[in-house]
Specification:
Layout (H helix, E strand, L loop, with lengths): L6 E5 L3 H11 L3 E8 L2 E7 L7 E5 L7 H13 L5 E5 L2 H11 L3 E8 L5 E6 L5 E6 L1
Parallel strand pairs: 1-4, 5-8
Antiparallel strand pairs: 2-3, 3-4, 6-7, 7-8
Length: about 130
């Protein structure tokens, strides 16, 4: 038996801003966009790992009004799990994000005591995104 990762879910209150950040700034490839019941989800992947898709959906999609509001509040606070990426050019990736101006810089490229060099951002929805040097 084999098990492999296929999808990772991420929430974003503004799908267009999320698409601009993940596709245009980070360079992920758009796989699909689907609209259903007034909501939209977007699927992207990296060129090096096309089998792993990031699904971006809106916090209220598929939830009760009460649950959707609670999830939206956690998203706004930046309290939901984020994403971790690897790159062979951390400084280049960092400058690309900084130049795009569509993410909050949390940490410039830094050598961490646990042995990695990474940088951190908050995407337009407030999700934490870390990128480490491969």
């Amino acid at each position: 038996m084999t098990i492999s990762l296929s999808h990772v879910h991420l929430l974003a209150d503004d799908p267009d801003a999320a698409l601009a950040f993940y596709r245009d700034t980070l360079g992920l490839e758009l796989r699909s966009e689907v609209e259903n019941d007034g909501f939209r989800w977007i699927t992207l992947s990296t060129a090096d790992q096309p089998e792993i898709e990031i699904v971006i959906s809106q916090p209220r999609a598929g939830h009760s009004e009460e649950d959707g509001a609670a999830i939206e509040a956690l998203l706004a606070k930046g309290e939901l799990p984020g994403l971790l990426f690897r790159t062979d050019d951390l400084d280049g990736a960092f400058e690309r994000v900084r130049a795009a101006g569509n993410a909050e810089i949390v940490q410039e490229p830094t050598d961490q005591f646990w042995g990695v060099r990474d940088a951190a951002f908050r995407d337009p929805a407030g999700n934490m995104v870390r990128i480490s040097q491969a």
